[in-house]
Amino acid sequence: MTDTYEVFYIINSFRQVNQMLFRAFWNENKEIELTSIQFMVLSILKERPSIGINDLAELSHMGSSSMSAVVERLVKGDYIERTRSDADRRSVMLQITAKGEKAQQETHQLWMERVSPILEIPKEDLEHLLHIHSLMIEKLQGREMNNL
Protein backbone atom coordinates (compact mmCIF):
# COMPACT_ATOMS: atom_id res chain seq x y z
CA MET A 1 0.00 0.00 0.00
CA THR A 2 1.41 3.39 -0.95
CA ASP A 3 1.61 6.29 1.49
CA THR A 4 -1.17 8.11 -0.36
CA TYR A 5 -3.60 5.23 0.03
CA GLU A 6 -2.60 4.65 3.62
CA VAL A 7 -3.33 8.28 4.50
CA PHE A 8 -6.60 8.07 2.54
CA TYR A 9 -7.75 5.01 4.50
CA ILE A 10 -6.85 6.61 7.83
CA ILE A 11 -8.71 9.84 7.02
CA ASN A 12 -11.65 7.94 5.56
CA SER A 13 -11.90 5.88 8.74
CA PHE A 14 -12.25 9.08 10.80
CA ARG A 15 -14.88 10.32 8.37
CA GLN A 16 -16.89 7.11 8.66
CA VAL A 17 -16.81 7.16 12.47
CA ASN A 18 -17.87 10.81 12.44
CA GLN A 19 -20.75 10.06 10.05
CA MET A 20 -21.91 7.14 12.19
CA LEU A 21 -21.93 9.28 15.32
CA PHE A 22 -23.84 12.01 13.52
CA ARG A 23 -26.39 9.57 12.04
CA ALA A 24 -26.84 7.68 15.29
CA PHE A 25 -27.85 10.79 17.07
CA TRP A 26 -28.33 14.11 15.34
CA ASN A 27 -29.70 13.02 12.00
CA GLU A 28 -32.43 10.68 13.18
CA ASN A 29 -33.61 12.48 16.26
CA LYS A 30 -36.11 15.22 15.46
CA GLU A 31 -36.90 15.79 19.15
CA ILE A 32 -33.47 17.33 19.80
CA GLU A 33 -33.51 21.08 19.50
CA LEU A 34 -29.72 21.56 19.68
CA THR A 35 -26.99 21.07 17.12
CA SER A 36 -23.92 19.10 18.17
CA ILE A 37 -21.90 22.33 18.52
CA GLN A 38 -24.63 23.96 20.63
CA PHE A 39 -24.76 20.87 22.85
CA MET A 40 -20.98 21.01 23.28
CA VAL A 41 -21.12 24.71 24.20
CA LEU A 42 -23.87 24.14 26.76
CA SER A 43 -21.93 21.22 28.22
CA ILE A 44 -18.80 23.35 28.59
CA LEU A 45 -20.77 26.20 30.18
CA LYS A 46 -22.40 23.78 32.59
CA GLU A 47 -18.96 22.60 33.74
CA ARG A 48 -17.31 26.04 33.59
CA PRO A 49 -19.86 28.73 34.32
CA SER A 50 -19.03 32.36 33.66
CA ILE A 51 -16.31 32.00 31.05
CA GLY A 52 -15.68 34.34 28.15
CA ILE A 53 -16.18 33.65 24.49
CA ASN A 54 -12.45 33.35 23.78
CA ASP A 55 -12.02 30.68 26.44
CA LEU A 56 -15.12 28.91 25.15
CA ALA A 57 -13.77 28.99 21.58
CA GLU A 58 -10.43 27.60 22.73
CA LEU A 59 -12.05 24.78 24.71
CA SER A 60 -14.21 23.95 21.68
CA HIS A 61 -11.28 24.09 19.24
CA MET A 62 -13.10 26.73 17.19
CA GLY A 63 -12.31 30.23 16.05
CA SER A 64 -13.74 33.17 17.99
CA SER A 65 -15.86 34.40 15.07
CA SER A 66 -17.43 30.97 14.56
CA MET A 67 -18.06 30.69 18.28
CA SER A 68 -19.66 34.15 18.30
CA ALA A 69 -22.26 32.94 15.79
CA VAL A 70 -23.03 29.85 17.89
CA VAL A 71 -23.30 31.95 21.05
CA GLU A 72 -25.59 34.44 19.34
CA ARG A 73 -28.03 31.66 18.35
CA LEU A 74 -27.94 30.25 21.89
CA VAL A 75 -28.59 33.70 23.39
CA LYS A 76 -31.52 34.28 21.00
CA GLY A 77 -32.90 30.87 21.97
CA ASP A 78 -32.60 31.76 25.67
CA TYR A 79 -30.19 28.87 26.32
CA ILE A 80 -27.39 31.11 27.56
CA GLU A 81 -27.02 34.70 28.69
CA ARG A 82 -24.28 37.28 28.62
CA THR A 83 -23.33 39.10 31.82
CA ARG A 84 -20.71 41.70 32.59
CA SER A 85 -17.78 40.66 34.74
CA ASP A 86 -17.69 42.30 38.16
CA ALA A 87 -13.89 42.35 38.01
CA ASP A 88 -13.66 43.88 34.52
CA ARG A 89 -16.74 45.66 33.16
CA ARG A 90 -15.34 45.32 29.62
CA SER A 91 -15.45 41.51 29.84
CA VAL A 92 -18.59 39.61 28.92
CA MET A 93 -19.15 36.30 30.64
CA LEU A 94 -21.43 33.53 29.38
CA GLN A 95 -23.77 31.56 31.61
CA ILE A 96 -26.17 28.75 30.90
CA THR A 97 -29.85 29.49 31.64
CA ALA A 98 -32.40 27.15 33.21
CA LYS A 99 -33.75 26.43 29.71
CA GLY A 100 -30.21 25.72 28.53
CA GLU A 101 -29.53 23.38 31.44
CA LYS A 102 -32.71 21.44 30.76
CA ALA A 103 -31.90 21.11 27.03
CA GLN A 104 -28.32 20.09 27.82
CA GLN A 105 -29.44 17.43 30.32
CA GLU A 106 -32.06 15.96 27.97
CA THR A 107 -29.63 15.94 25.07
CA HIS A 108 -26.89 14.40 27.22
CA GLN A 109 -29.20 11.58 28.30
CA LEU A 110 -30.16 10.78 24.71
CA TRP A 111 -26.54 11.09 23.59
CA MET A 112 -25.37 8.57 26.18
CA GLU A 113 -28.15 6.14 25.25
CA ARG A 114 -27.04 6.27 21.62
CA VAL A 115 -23.25 6.19 21.99
CA SER A 116 -22.82 3.99 25.06
CA PRO A 117 -22.21 0.87 22.90
CA ILE A 118 -18.75 2.37 22.30
CA LEU A 119 -18.01 1.51 25.93
CA GLU A 120 -18.38 -2.19 25.08
CA ILE A 121 -14.99 -1.93 23.38
CA PRO A 122 -12.32 -3.17 25.81
CA LYS A 123 -10.88 -0.36 27.93
CA GLU A 124 -7.31 -1.14 26.81
CA ASP A 125 -8.33 -0.72 23.16
CA LEU A 126 -10.04 2.61 23.88
CA GLU A 127 -6.97 3.83 25.76
CA HIS A 128 -4.76 2.76 22.85
CA LEU A 129 -7.07 4.56 20.40
CA LEU A 130 -6.94 7.77 22.44
CA HIS A 131 -3.17 7.51 22.66
CA ILE A 132 -2.95 7.16 18.88
CA HIS A 133 -5.25 10.17 18.47
CA SER A 134 -2.93 12.19 20.71
CA LEU A 135 0.06 11.16 18.63
CA MET A 136 -1.73 12.13 15.42
CA ILE A 137 -2.72 15.52 16.84
CA GLU A 138 0.85 16.11 17.96
CA LYS A 139 2.22 15.25 14.50
CA LEU A 140 -0.35 17.37 12.69
CA GLN A 141 0.16 20.34 15.02
CA GLY A 142 3.86 20.20 14.23
CA ARG A 143 3.04 20.42 10.51
CA GLU A 144 0.52 23.20 11.12
CA MET A 145 3.15 25.32 12.89
CA ASN A 146 5.54 24.90 9.95
CA ASN A 147 2.92 26.23 7.53
CA LEU A 148 2.11 29.47 9.37
UniProtKB/TrEMBL annotation:
GO molecular function terms attached to this record: DNA binding; DNA-binding transcription factor activity
The UniProt record lists the keyword Transcription: yes
Lineage: Bacteria, Bacillati, Bacillota, Bacilli, Bacillales
UniProt cross-references to Pfam families, sorted A to Z: MarR (PF01047)
Domain HTH marR-type: 1-148
Organism: Paenibacillus barcinonensis
Annotated protein name in UniProt: DNA-binding MarR family transcriptional regulator
Keywords linked to the UniProt accession: DNA-binding, Transcription, Transcription regulation
